[in-house]
Amino acid sequence: MLMPSMRGPVLLTGVALALTCGCTGSTGTDSRDNSRAGASSPVIPVVASTNVYGNIVQQVGGGKVTVVSIISDPAQDPHSYEASTQNRLELSKAKVVVENGGGYDDFVGRMLHSAKNSSPAVIDAVKVSGKAPKAGRELNEHVWYDLPAMGKLTDRVADALAKASPADADVFRRNAKAFKDRLTALERKERQVKAEHAGAAVAVTEPVPLYMTEAMGLRNKTPADFGQAVEEGDDVSAQSLQRTLSLFAHKQVKALIYNKQTSGPPTEKVKAAAEDSGIPVVPVTETLPQGEDYLSWMTANIGAIKSALER
C-alpha cells in the first residue's frame, strides 16, 4: 500500500523515492545484437503495472521494447489506482502486459476486461511465482522482493517477447540469462546473511520485505495484526501498537525495516521508538527508486539489512 510519507526516516541506504519511470540504469543487454535486429523487426510495446516490472522488461528487451510503467510515483496507491484515458490507450497498443496480481494492482485487470480489439500476452507475477497463502495467513503479494520468483518472471517475459518478435528470440533469452545470473549472485548474498545471522529477530511496518528477510533466515516479530492494519489502511488497535512498541523498548529485535512510502501516526511512533532505543531503521520502497535499476535496488536493500544486523 502506498501513501505519501509524512516525514523521512533515518536512512541506512541511499535508496530514494521513485519519481520517474524505472526504465533507467544499466540494462545489461547486448546492444550490438539489438541494433542489428532493429533493422528487421519492429519494437514491441509493453505496459507494466509498476516501474519495478517495467525495468525488468527493459533489461530483457533492451532496445527492442518500449515500456510504459503505469505506477512510478510513490504517492500512487496500486490498490486504489484508477486508470486514465492515456493508460487505456497505451494498454490497447501493448503486445505484452506485466502485472503483479494477487490483488495488488487490480486496475490492470479492469482495463484488460474493458479493452476492445486488444489481446496482449498477460504475465501475472504472483501466478508465475507459484506463491500461495500460508496456513492462517493471507498471501503476501509483494513478490518482487522474492529473487527466485523474479527469475521465473524473467523467463516468462523472454518467452512473451520472443513470441511477439521471433527474429529476436535469441537476444531476449540471452538478456534474460544475463539478468538471472546477476539475480543468482544476489541470492548468494542473501545466503551469506543467513549463514551469519540466521534466527535474528527483526520488525517490519508492513509485510513488503518479508520474502527477502525469510530468505535471509530472519524472524519477523511484528504482531501480524499491526502490519495487516497498516497495509490495509485500517486503524491500528492500541493493544497491537503497544505490543509492537515493546519490541524496541525491550530490545527484542535487531532492526526495523520501514516502508517509507507508507507513513502515518502508528508507523511514525514505531520508527521513533526504534531510533530512541538505538535500533537501526532500514527503509524500503514499493516502487523503483530514481536512478536505480531492479538489480542495484535489491543490492542496496540486502546491503542495508546486512549492515543493520552487524550493528
Number of helices: 12
The largest beta-sheet arranges its strands as 2-1-3-4
Number of domains: 2
Spatial extent as radius of gyration: 20 Å
CATH class of the largest domain: Alpha Beta
User: What is the distance, rounded to the nearest whole angstrom, between the alpha carbons of the first and last residues?
Assistant: 29 Å
- The tally of strands reads 8
How would a textbook summarize the main sheet? 4 strands, parallel
What's the helix-strand series?
HEHEHEHEHHHEHEHHEHEH
Helix content: 40-55%
InterPro entries: Bact_metal-bind_prot9, ZnuA-like
Keywords: Coiled coil, Metal-binding, Signal, Transport
Coiled coil: 169-196
Subcellular location: Cell envelope
Q: Strands, helices and their partners?
A:
Blueprint: H1 31-38, E1 44-50, H2 51-61, E2 65-71, H3 85-93, E3 96-99, H4 106-114, E4 121-124, H5 125-129, H6 147-164, H7 169-197, E5 201-204, H8 210-215, E6 219-220, H9 224-232, H10 238-249, E7 256-259, H11 265-276, E8 281-284, H12 294-310
Parallel strand pairs: 1-2, 1-3, 3-4, 5-6, 5-7, 7-8
InterPro entries: Bact_metal-bind_prot9, ZnuA-like
Protein name: ABC transporter substrate-binding protein
Coiled coil: 169-196
If you had to describe this structure to a student in words, what would you say it looks like?
There is one protein chain. The chain has twelve helices and eight strands. The chain has 311 residues and is of the alpha/beta class. It starts with 30 loop residues before the first helix and ends with a helix. It is 47% helix and 12% strand. The longest helix is centred in the middle third of the chain and has 29 residues. The N terminus is likely disordered. It has two domains: 157 residues, Rossmann fold (3-Layer(aba) Sandwich), CATH 3.40.50.1980; 122 residues, Nitrogenase molybdenum iron protein domain (Rossmann fold), CATH 3.40.50.
